[in-house]
Design goal:
- Its EC number is 4.2.1.46.
- This is dTDP-glucose 4,6-dehydratase.
- Its cofactor is NAD(+).
- Helix content is 42%, strand content 16%.
- With 358 residues, it is of the alpha/beta class.
- The protein has a domain of 249 residues: NAD(P)-binding Rossmann-like Domain (Rossmann fold), CATH 3.40.50.
- The strands form 3 sheets. The chain has a 7-stranded parallel beta sheet with strand order 3-2-1-4-5-6-10, with helices on both faces. A 3-stranded mixed beta sheet has the order 7-9-11.
- Helix 5 links the parallel strand 5 and strand 6.
- The longest helix is centred in the N-terminal third of the chain and has 23 residues.
- The radius of gyration is 20 Å and the shape is globular.
Length: 358
């Protein structure tokens, strides 16, 4: 049985990855989920796995080198999938310190623990061990609206404390690959969407606000463009890179779904109007009149677009979910899981697990 150490597994992408892996491999793998349970970590996302013999949750900070090293000593870790990161740009602008600590120092701690556990006396590594560092397209900076794309060899040009901290963590991983021959890969992905996303991010925020008749805030002119990737497609890509990726390589993971922010909001409103039953009182609350333009975010990148050519050519992965299908699935999930959203927006989701994992 192969053992995976997943950092940040209680977060949005991490929890979706765990769902995907158990759906694919069932009892053939073991997952050790390490999460600090900050505001973005929600164990309700993984409640169905709590009783499984092949799932272990450990509340820990990835910056705690002693605890992380002890985990590697206790479990024979075959794969590390490193999601854990502070990721909200607005929060990084207000408090960059915590982003540098978690995203840079935390990655260093994870690299050192894995290196110490996997390295042989002669400097080689135990066969089959792999470390995957999950990063973002934001490290590349901003593109003009000219049809250009980010490629794996695009120079880094981060514009926010968040993207700068992720760029720094990427360089750390690259340095361990080059200096120590460390068995790692880096993936840089575009904006994810889907179930379990914390409602500070654009899509769940707009869904929740629209259902309650609250304002839908749009930065600047709303014409900032992002490439949207359905989160299950991302989980599949990560698994394929772990199994088929060449050690030391970076792979860009994109959705081929470029959309302006304002278009995303209009699609959400139209889809809600289509899906909600006629007798649902919220149907009358959902309106484009809720759209409210606000002062633009500082350092707001204009456009991101990833070319996933390399991962398709080398590994065979491609995005399977078109945005028109993925957004409908996502909205339906939030409508069917109103209790989850209510617990998250109220903060109640933290109370039970905070008591359990004091």
């Amino acid at each position: 049985m192969r053992t995976y150490l997943v950092t940040g597994g209680a977060g949005f992408i991490g929890s979706n990855y765990i769902h995907y892996m158990f759906k694919k491999y069932h009892e053939d793998i073991k997952i050790i989920n390490v999460d600090k349970l900050t505001y973005a970590g929600n164990l309700e996302n993984l409640k169905e796995f709590e009783a499984r013999n092949n799932y272990v949750f450990i509340k820990a900070d990835i910056c705690d080198s002693e605890t992380i090293s002890n985990i590697f000593e206790e479990y024979d870790i075959d794969r590390v999938v490193h999601f854990a990161a502070e990721s909200h740009v607005d929060r990084s602008i207000k408090n960059p310190d915590v982003f540098v600590k978690t995203n840079v120092l935390g990655t260093l701690v994870m690299l050192n623990a894995a290196k110490d556990a996997w390295e042989n006396v002669d400097g080689s590594y135990v066969e089959g061990k792999k470390f995957l560092h999950v990063s973002t397209d934001e490290v590349y900076g901003s593109l003009e609206d000219d049809g250009s794309y980010f490629y794996e060899n695009t120079p880094y040009d981060p514009h926010s404390p968040y993207s700068a901290s992720k760029a720094s963590s990427d360089f750390l991983v690259k340095s361990y690959i080059d200096t120590y021959g460390f068995p790692a890969n880096i993936t840089n992905c575009s904006n994810n969407y889907g179930p379990y996303q914390f409602p500070e991010k654009l899509i769940p925020l707009m869904i929740n606000n629209a259902l309650h008749g609250e304002k839908l805030p749009v930065y600047g002119d709303g014409k900032n463009i992002r490439d949207w990737l359905y989160v299950e497609d991302h989980a599949k890509a990560i698994d394929m890179v772990q199994e088929l990726g060449k050690i030391g390589e970076t792979y860009n993971i994109g959705g081929h779904n470029e959309k302006c922010n304002i278009d995303i909001i209009n699609i959400i409103i139209d889809t809600l109007a289509e899906i909600l039953p006629e007798n649902d009182p919220r149907k009358n609350l959902v309106s484009k009149n809720l759209i409210t333009y606000v002062e633009d975010r500082k350092g707001h990148d204009r456009r991101y677009a990833i070319a996933p050519d390399k991962i398709k050519k080398d590994i065979g992965w491609f995005p399977e979910t078109m945005f028109k299908d993925g957004i409908k699935k996502t909205i339906k999930w939030y409508l069917e899981n109103e209790a989850w959203m209510a617990n998250v927006t109220s903060g109640d989701y933290q109370k039970y697990y905070k008591e359990m994992y004091k």
